[in-house]
Specification:
Blueprint (H helix, E strand, L loop, with lengths): L35 E2 L8 E5 L23 E2 L2 E2 L4 E2 L19 E19 L10 E7 L7 H4 L7 E8 L5 E5 L6 E9 L3 E2 L1 E8 L3 H7 L2 E2 L8 E5 L23 E2 L9 E19 L10 E7 L7 E8 L5 E20 L3 E2 L1 E8 L1 H13 L3
Antiparallel strand pairs: 1-12, 2-6, 3-4, 5-11, 6-9, 6-10, 6-12, 7-8, 7-10, 13-21, 14-16, 15-20, 16-19, 16-21, 17-18, 17-19
Length: 373
């Protein structure tokens, strides 16, 4: 994947003329959006500081879902926008009224799950004449919970993920990233000022092996612990990645639901664990899936890149809106897991409780070092 293959949007969008505010939104099918959003609030992400948020607060950048636009909503500072918007920059005097080439606004973002960034989307939805001329994104990796002052210290090394690039208004501006490093924080810059509605940071979670080692037993499939979806038979109503998000599902579309099958097949999700592990217990939750829960489910595993699947949980009846728990007869070693549901429907969460094997822990630690962790 090369950055040159990513569609580019520049310039103003047409002024809003009523009707559907997204009708002329410029976007594309970016090749990395199937990956985890490392800046998802559900994983613990946050916008921890910004130099300016006069018109619209920085926290809006990470809100779930598309930005909302109400043409009649005005506040005491002006038009209320669903995004992060700074005031207009000015020069130093009447003789020099324009901002300099280096003037810019910035926001510091803590990733919810540290990892390797593969792509970034900076969406200027509804910012038609008040979007930045250009954007840039930098990243760093610091241990613990650094403060904004820690991150802005002069000795902190920042790596450029997205160089200063012109963007368009009312558009999803996407950028492929090629940096094989583990990052914990981003600095999002807009040149010289303006507004950005949403930030999405797609990549691969790289967990801290010391933390997982201290936990001992944990959820081996969870996004925050390095589990990920490799493939799924159907993503019609909601993404399969929802099944390994933190916490319990809070509504129907917070899980995975497939379209109704009209053949004799079944639906499935294949997962890759963070490293080789031993699974000891399983949870299959159908919370909030009532008339559309999967009827039955089975679970299979594979250890390594090749070989067939070994069933560890035979086809079992599922109840709607229920958390099903299964203790395995003996620990099962695996690097990949597959859940099959019959015939269709959905589950809200899959939890695989266990621990890393000695080989898995060593491999995870080696990758962590390789990525600069």
């Amino acid at each position: 994947m090369t950055d040159a293959a990513i569609p580019r949007f520049t310039g103003d969008a047409r002024p809003y003329a009523g009707g559907d505010p997204y009708a002329d939104h410029r976007t594309a099918d970016f090749p990395f959006t199937h990956l985890v959003d490392l800046a998802d609030r559900r994983l613990g992400a946050g916008v921890i500081a910004a130099n300016d948020e006069f018109f619209a607060e920085r926290e809006n950048l990470l809100k779930p879902g598309p930005a909302v636009f109400d043409p009649e909503h005005f506040g005491h500072k002006g038009k209320v926008m669903d995004g992060w918007e700074t005031r207009r920059r000015r020069g130093v005097s009447a003789a020099e009224p324009h901002p300099t080439a280096d003037d810019h606004d910035w926001a510091l973002v803590r990733l919810g799950a540290p990892g390797v960034v593969r792509g970034v989307v900076l969406d200027t939805a509804h910012f038609r004449g008040n979007y930045p001329q250009a954007v840039s994104v930098e990243a760093t990796s610091l241990p613990g919970s650094p403060s904004p002052e820690d991150l802005l210290a002069p000795d902190v090394k920042w790596t450029t993920l997205v160089p200063r690039t012109a963007v368009g208004g009312h558009a999803a501006n996407g950028f492929a990233v090629d940096a094989e490093q583990r990052f914990t924080h981003l600095r999002v810059n807009q040149h010289p000022d303006g507004g950005i509605a949403r930030l999405r940071v797609y990549g691969e979670v790289v967990p801290d092996p010391a933390w997982l080692g201290a936990l001992g037993t944990f959820d081996l499939a969870a996004l925050e612990n390095g589990g990920r979806v490799e493939d799924a038979s159907d993503r019609f109503y909601s993404p399969a990645t929802n099944t390994i998000q933190p916490g319990r599902s809070r509504k129907m579309d917070d899980g995975w639901e497939t379209r109704r099958r009209r053949d004799r097949g079944n639906d499935w999700i294949a997962y890759r664990l963070a490293a080789q592990s031993e699974i000891r217990a399983v949870e299959i939750d159908t919370a909030y899936l009532k008339g559309n829960s999967a009827g039955w489910a089975s679970l299979s595993v594979r250890d390594g890149e090749d070989g067939g699947w070994t069933e560890i949980l035979p086809r079992t009846r599922l109840q709607p809106d229920t958390d099903h728990r299964f203790v395995l007869d003996a620990p099962v070693r695996a690097t990949r897991v597959r859940i099959d549901i019959f015939p269709d429907g959905g589950i809200s969460r899959l939890r695989l409780h266990g621990s890393l094997t000695q080989e898995g822990a060593a491999a995870l630690a080696a990758r962590h070092r390789e990525l600069g962790g």
